[in-house]
Amino acid sequence: MDILSALSFIPGNEAGRLEPLARYLPPVPEGVAAAFLAEHAQSAAWVLDPFGASPRLAVEMAHAGYRVLVAVNNPVARFLLELAAAPPPRSELQAALSELAVSHKGEERLETHLQSLYLTDCTKCQRSVPAEAFIWEREGNAPIARIIHCPQCGESGERDVTLADRERASQLAATTALHRSRALERVAARDDPDREHAEEALACYLPPAVYALITIINRLDGLAFSPERRRCLLALALTTCDEGNTLWPHPAERPRPKQLTIPPRFRENNLWLALERSVETWASDAPPLPVTIWPASPPESGGICLFEGPLRELAPRLKDTPIQVILAALPRPNQAFWTLSALWAGWLWGRQAVGPFKRVLQRHRYDWSWHAAALYAAFKNLAPYIPLNALFFSLVAEPEPSFLSAAMLATAFAGFDLQGIAIRTRHDPLQLLWQRRAFMHRVTEEFDRTSVGRAMQTYLGERGEPVTYLHLHAAGLSTLAENHALSWREEALAQIHAPIQEALASETYIRHDGSPHSLEVGLWGLHEYAQESDALPDRVEMAAVQFLQKHPVCTQRELEANLNAEFPGLFTPSLGLIKEILASYATESDGQWRLRPEDSASLRRADLEAAGRALEALTAQLRYTLIRPDNPRRLLLWQEKGETVYAFYLLASTVIGKILRENLYPPERSLLVISGGRAGLLIYKLRRDPQLDKIWHNGWRVLKFRHLRRLAESPGLTREIWARELSSDPIEPPEQMKMF
User: Does 426 reside within a domain?
Assistant: First the structure.
């Protein structure tokens, strides 16, 4: 099977709730890992997660009945995994927070004391209330705004700061030295060469945040809590440590920081309120999973075995562990998370907990070549110690071409053969399937570079529509991997990108809405597509309708899985297309979809026949000549003196790609005769394909069945009225109407 269509994309479920520190973790859908293992692994099999980048992934596999061995070097990631496996109930978190709140800082309750750091005056009733957050500018010495909610008068929203707010910020900044020193000391001693790097990382915390966090940590150290209460408080403190940094741009809903770069405008969050919010972040009623520490084995019913260290230390010890599948969300470079994890680990558990992981403080930039080398080192150490032909299923979340290149180069050269690659859209995690090869292949030195371009061109031709650069890049990389031409060497990424970029420089391709600064902007297509096959969206529509006809009641997931199997790999249809098809052909009730009665095959045939009869009757009324060309499509022509005045394509669907590209008549005289229910799907298809959209806007129009019936019933219809009425029911309302 062609490598580009060898793997069916596994659809997952959108996560029901955000996991703790989700903004730093791979956004992996739920259900993908369990679905893959159900097909490729035996019950109770050992599964290796070599990075532990996604706690959700490991927990999902364990709940599905597998023994999951996770190598995790980051102490924060390890804690996230332990808590995900055995999440604390809300009642225990609330009790722990209450116990912390009533502890004292001097003569004050800790809650009262920390809330006082954020006191401001209500703009309406002038009462003193804690601000929910202050807004800062990156170069400022004081906040510029505050977000308040007054429980007394109900005043709420963003307001300007007062002079008292500015003075309070200045006073807190003047007393921060002792607390900053304490924060640094928990991470690196004064004579530690990493001390200066810890200081640089600490710069993303404002003085009030440092004071509040160190005060909380001192309470955790100084008070005697039960082990479960301490675990809960450490969890609350961890997410509060993240809420305390300046990596919260304002306004922004879900920032995903990769670098310790302070936004131009950011939020200073109220950290006591952050502690309270953290209860909801961590609380869960999920049943706990068995968690063991290597080499202790979890039960055959499923569980997690933690190896507290890097993969290179675990790999040589795997000889006696029958790893059946490797399954992982591949980590991507994240200087922000890795650096902050070193800080947080020191703050929460002390310097000894940071250990060798502290080295991440030294590196400020991670390029893709570095990342490829790191992944290659990991996989090279792993490959000799796992069974031959073992499967490796990897997820590349937040994909971009260089990330995919680094992942594929590292995996291929470390001893794995690519079995398939599946991409839905650039917003979904890529799915890669590898198999441990028996022998190391010699790198193909004489590889024909032009074959990369031919593979990309063939892929575009088979797809029949423009695609993102990521799709073409994946097609080119897959060809290189299949031919064993991905070899590790200096500047390897630039060398494997070269044949892909050379191919795109040819005149074979046409680019839509591109940028001279980046190949990744816009869409790439062919100047001409083969006429023997329909474009992918049209084929997906036909397959979806057939499925709906054979399955009177189905779920979206059932349809999605069926279509992904029929259109696998780099041909996977987008979820947006599937939803538009469902909206056009079916109705939903309680999660079940049913084909609309009017879209049954018999009724649609009747509609088409009725439309044909109406056009035939109107031909005589308007004194045109009706012509039925010898054509596989339902095509009717109105002619006058041998010249075509109108060309009508009668359709029960929106399978329009061939029609628009092969139409022999002037666009301004060409019409699609369709059901009004197809208008949304038609608009969607035109918007996703700039080439079709350009053809359409040369003058094509739509004549809806209901509009045609109304015109056919108009006794006084003239040619002038007909011409005017054809433009009175467009598929889209005028721009000024869309405002309402």
Answer: no
